[in-house]
Amino acid sequence: LDRYPLADDLGRRFGLPVKLDHHPRALLVGDRWFGAGRGVKQFAVVYTGEVLGGAFYFDGHLYRGTAGAGGELGHTFVQLDGELCRCGRRGCWDTIATLSWLRREAAAAGLPEPALIDSGRLADMAARQVAGAEKLLDRYACNVAVGIANLQQTVAPNIFILHGDVVLGGARLLDAIARHVRAMVPPRPGSTIEFIAGDAGDGAALLGAAGLVISELLQLPI
Ligand SMILES: [Zn+2]
User: Are the C-beta atoms of residues 140 and 119 closer than 8 Å to each other?
Assistant: First the structure.
């Protein structure tokens, strides 16, 4: 859909104004208005699954970056000369913390039905002590944690609301991610780093997208 005039096309089809924004920012507004982001001064949203992305709420404002280009977290670098990413560069966070990595590694570890694996299935296998599942879950948690640790180190949101596939992994996966992040970036004395499970489905994104449109049309601060 690169360069495709999606907003114009949808606008013509529905006869309504159309706004385009980054999916994690819709999640963020959903959290801000209806979820764990209510009343909080700053937090970050991280979405995982087929792709990785994020959004930031700083000092009472949604942060979009120049031309809305902020939040492309999947293509921040975690390993110089690492694996080739779908974006054409190497070593992006996307190459080690999305479902394509998980499925490939599940196949290599001999887990059943690797092509269908997601965080929910992996956590379930780990709970049933399927050989290799716990180890893979911990590696996946560590890979997700690397990018979050970089964010914490850079802008210290201290509250991370996670959405998408990773939520399916439940407390087992969330706790593992939190443990790895805290080991990589120990919280400053007197502060904590909080991890909150958001929505695995599309509910928060739809609510947030509606919130973004209303904010834009009414020119409300988000
Ligand atoms: Zn990339």
Answer: yes
8 A C-beta contact, residue 30 and residue 62: no
Ligand 1 mean position to 101 CA, how many Å?
Answer: 13
**pLDDT band with cut points at 50, 70 and 90 for residue 222:** low
pLDDT at 84 over 90: yes
Reduce the DSSP state of residue 112 to 3 states and report it. coil
Tell me if residue 71 falls in helix, strand or coil.
coil
Question: Cα of 218 to ligand 1 centre, how many Å?
Answer: 36
Q: What is the pLDDT of residues 138-169, one digit of tens each?
A: 999 999 999 999 999 999 999 999 999 999 99
Where are the chain's structural domains? 6-218
**Taking a C-beta distance cutoff of 8 angstroms, is the pair 144, 48 a contact?**
yes
CA of 111 to the centre of ligand 1 (A): 27
CATH fold of 6-218 reads Nucleotidyltransferase; domain 5 (3.30.420)
